[in-house]
Design goal:
The chain is mainly beta. The protein contains no helices and 7 strands. The chain has one domain. Strands 1-2-3 form a 3-stranded antiparallel sheet, with no helix packed on it. β2 and β3 form a beta hairpin. The protein is extended, with a radius of gyration of 20 Å. This is Glycosyl hydrolase family 38 C-terminal domain-containing protein. It comes from marine sediment metagenome.
Length: 114
């Protein structure tokens, strides 16, 4: 037997209709940008916990990056692109003062693979 716990979260955004600001008075629009569904499954007879995360990104022209800490020491991680799977180094954060900053990720050169 198993126990499943589901968390559902909705994120909203306020936008300014910048294309219409010359013709109409300012107004704000609220619309849903992200739907996140997280499931945690715990089994009674199996020493395993499953995590399932589904994200529906409706925000235009934005790439969503998600990092899950697995506790496994790896030098590379793999990410999927529209052209295939790319290996990237796991150390992409640098510490600046008391804050962590993400280094800009490069666009992969697919001609290197040919």
């Amino acid at each position: 037997s198993r126990v499943k716990v589901v968390f559902e979260t909705e994120y909203y955004c306020l936008t300014w209709p910048y294309r219409l600001k010359e013709r109409f008075p300012p107004m704000l629009y609220k619309y849903k940008t992200l739907d996140i569904c997280k499931e945690v499954v715990v089994y009674r007879d199996i020493p395993r916990i499953e995590f399932v995360t589904r994200i529906d990104n409706n925000y235009p022209n934005v790439r969503l990056r998600v990092r899950f800490d697995t506790g496994i020491d790896r030098k590379l991680y793999f990410r999927e692109t529209q052209f295939g799977v790319i290996a990237e180094p796991t150390e992409f954060l640098t510490k600046v003062g008391e804050h962590w900053e993400s280094e800009p990720s490069r666009i992969p050169n697919f001609f290197e693979l040919v």
